[in-house]
Amino acid sequence: MIEASPSSRLDTSEGLDWHLEQLVKLDLRLAPVWQQAGTPAPRINPPGFAGIAKIVCGQQLSVASARAIWSRFELLPGALKPLSYLWLDETQVRASGFSLGKYRTLRVIAEAVVAGELDFAHLETLTAEAATAYLVAHKGIGPWTAQVYLMFCAQHPDVFPAGDLALLKAVQSGLGLEARPSIKALATIAEMWSPHRSAAALLFWRLFASQRLKDGIVL
């Protein structure tokens, strides 16, 4: 038997399996989704500035493109620490593949961390909603970035990025909805999956990936 608690993070396969089991008990519609998609793996990114930099890097890019750009960016001296990132000039960062907007976004975030205005460790004391609000209060961090950071870097168990296009498509398919839900409607649907919303998001991302692979599109 897997032993875990409702506060368990999602940084182990055992913890994620426990959350998925509780999730299916909350909503029986998710049992066939799990069967079709298979069990997702934990997604673990470093916390702090390095973690949010990786998320910003991947915004609105394919997985392959994001990986290629990140592999170049992380080799820049000091790129993964806020103070030393500020020493890098625009030409260096953009040569790795970052857009001007992403370069500037990371500068704003780095400045906030260096000034003590943004404390990633503080997130550990907050609920999902409060942590999201704390992050988006800082310029350059939107809801999607905040929620994905909480899932992948803070391993928060109860976050659902309802604005993610892949999740919107996957939930429509997985639940057999006639139309793709709006962001607000999807957030409402996800409320019934609390306190296991992060596991639900990982499950539906897995479903989306499996369906695309089935259709011959390699992620």
Tell me the fraction of residues in β-strands, as a range. under 5%
- H-E order: HHHHHHHHHHHH
| Total E-strand runs | 0
Q: Please tell me the overall pLDDT.
A: 90
Largest sheet: none
Rg, Cα atoms, Å: 18 Å
Low-confidence stretches: 1-7, 214-219
The end-to-end distance, rounded to whole angstroms, is: 34 Å
Quote the CATH topology of the largest domain: Endonuclease III, domain 1
- CATH class identity of the largest domain: Mainly Alpha
Number of helices: 12
Can you identify the CATH superfamily of the largest domain? Answer: Hypothetical protein, domain 2
Helix share, percent: 55-70%
Q: Which second-level CATH architecture of the largest domain applies?
A: Orthogonal Bundle
Structural class: mainly alpha
Q: Write down the overall geometry.
A: globular
- Total domain modules: 2
Describe the structure.
The chain is an all-alpha fold and 219 residues long. It folds into two domains: 13-43 and 159-214, Endonuclease Iii, domain 2, CATH 1.10.1670; 48-152, Endonuclease III, domain 1, CATH 1.10.340. It is 58% helix and 0% strand. The chain is built from twelve helices and no strands. The protein has helices spanning 13-26, 30-37, 48-58, 63-73, 82-85, 90-95, 100-114, 128-136, 143-152, 165-175, 183-191, 197-214. α1 (13-26) packs across α12, α2 crosses α12 (197-214) and α3 (48-58) runs antiparallel to α7 (100-114). The radius of gyration is 18 Å and the shape is globular. The two termini are 34 Å apart.
